[in-house]
Amino acid sequence: MAKPTLPRRFEDRGTTVPFEGRSLRLTRLRVISGATTVEWEATVAGFWGGSSRQILVVPWRHLASIGQMSPRDETLFKAVDSLEDAEDINPFVIRDVVLKVDDRLGHGKGALGLRRYDRAKAKASLLAILVHDYGRQQRDRVLASLPPAKLVENGSKQATDTLTIEQLTGQTLDFHGKRLGLPAAELGRRLDSLAELLTPLGEVGVSQAAKEDGFLIRCRNRLRAFDHEMIEYEKNARHEMSDPTAMIRFAVKQYLGYVDTKLASLEEKFVHLPSLLREADRTAGFLNGVRRDVAYALDGWDVLMDIWDEAKETGDDMKIEDAVMFAFTNAPLMPLQEIDTSTESGKVWRGYETVRGGLVKMMHSWNDGEPDDELMKRTEEGKQREKVRKRKRADPE
Q1: 2-39 as b/e, with b when 16 or more CB fall inside 10 Å?
Q2: Could you tell me if residue 146 is inside a domain?
Q3: In this structure, are residues 50 and 33 in contact, taking their beta carbons and an 8 Å threshold?
């Protein structure tokens, strides 16, 4: 078997386009840039179903002719296609298209409203940092400890007993503007720009465990819950499922660790918010880098978790096992440049990704990367026993 290769960059892996059709659920769009041309390519994992690791690769514009699309999928396909071979296709570009399509079709479930709320919470957390600093400088204990929630207009416009949110914002921006040598209006504009970039990542100034707002944070929290569900599943699963489950949990842990490291760097940076506002362009560049890394790291997991949730709802053990195996063979691959192989953990992770990247209808030993025929045999025998047991239950005669 040819030695498997891993994507070098996130962009080489592509961005998930969340179609509803089952054969297209794991579709990724990636950009192939040539010397004079830009081509779009679609990669579809799981197109043939089952636990095959084979990936269908087709020109993007041929995708509609090979997979069954719902009316919503057709609309989404056309909307993405209308981007006209843009070179910068990333999870944020695709998400904006998806939100607009779903909102137009009435499938959004308030997603656009939730994004506005996330932005308000992000701005309030930034403003709270400035207010706290302002309060300390003014020796005002109320302002120095004012909760960020007080700065979000949610039925009340009062920040304190004596100040409205608007008044307090004006005083705070005027104070910091003078210290930074910036007009208050310009400082407010820079604050709004940072809040817009921060929106997917939620509030700053709160602990990792307490983060709830922002679509990337919600995805991360869902992935954490998925990890706990895998723990519970493994307790009662057949022995043959322990290895795939363990490898899924290994991947989840590594991705969560990667995301939390990026979020921690964000928190560390935003402690010095006034300085960041002075160097707004550099700050925006840093924030865009964190957004990119976190978005790409979480991209694709939602599809696998949706399939897992659907299988759980059926209560069918075989369907649940199929969902586990599907997640095992199709969990997103981490690009080479994002794995620090100078550490033991990084070396193990790269070995894990290399083995998983080479799976084609077989399982491998985690230790040496060779096909584990015994494990594959045990798994197939276990599935056959389970099918016989279910037939006997359905037909006792």
Answers
A1: eebebbeebbbbbbbbbbeeebbbbbbbbbeeeeeeee
A2: no
A3: no
Please give the average per-residue pLDDT across 204-233, as a whole number. Answer: 93
- The pair of three-digit structure tokens given for residue 42, joined into one six-digit string: 């679609």
Chain-centroid distance of CA 67 in Å reads 25
Q: Report helix, strand or coil for 110.
A: coil
pLDDT at 311: 95
Q: Measured in whole angstroms, how far is the alpha carbon of residue 248 from the centre of its chain?
A: 16
Strand partners, 59: 41
Q: What is the mean pLDDT of residues 305-333?
A: 92
Tell me the C-alpha distance between 358 and 364, whole Å.
9
Residue 73: phi, psi to the nearest 5?
-65, -40
Give pLDDT tens digits for 127-167. 999 999 999 988 988 888 888 877 776 555 777 877 888 88
Q: Please check whether residue 61 lies inside any domain of the structure.
A: yes
Show the beta-strand stretches assigned E in the chain. 15-16, 27-33, 38-45, 55-59
When computed from its CA atoms, the radius of gyration of the chain, rounded to whole angstroms, is: 24
Q: What is the pLDDT of residue 371?
A: 46
Q: Is residue 309 part of a domain?
A: no
Residues in Cβ contact with 323 at an 8 Å cutoff, skipping those fewer than 6 apart: 307, 308, 310, 311, 312
Give the type of residue at 160: T
List residues bridging with 16 in a β-sheet: 28
The answer to whether residue 84 sits within a structural domain is yes
**Rounded to whole angstroms, how far apart are CA atoms 213 and 344?**
33
pLDDT over 50 at 391, yes or no: yes
User: Tens of pLDDT along 170-210?
Assistant: 999 999 999 999 999 999 999 999 999 999 999 998 888 88
Q: Which domain holds residue 66?
A: 10-108
What is the distance between the alpha carbons of residues 213 and 348, in angstroms, rounded to a whole number?
32
Residue pair 225/233 in contact (Cβ under 8 Å)? The answer is no
* β-strand pairing of 15-16 with 27-33: antiparallel
At 40, which amino acid appears? W
Q: How many domains does the chain have?
A: 1
Say yes or no to pLDDT of 262 above 70: yes
At 364-377, the pLDDT tens digits run 343 444 444 554 55
Q: How many CB atoms lie within 10 A of CB 340?
A: 12
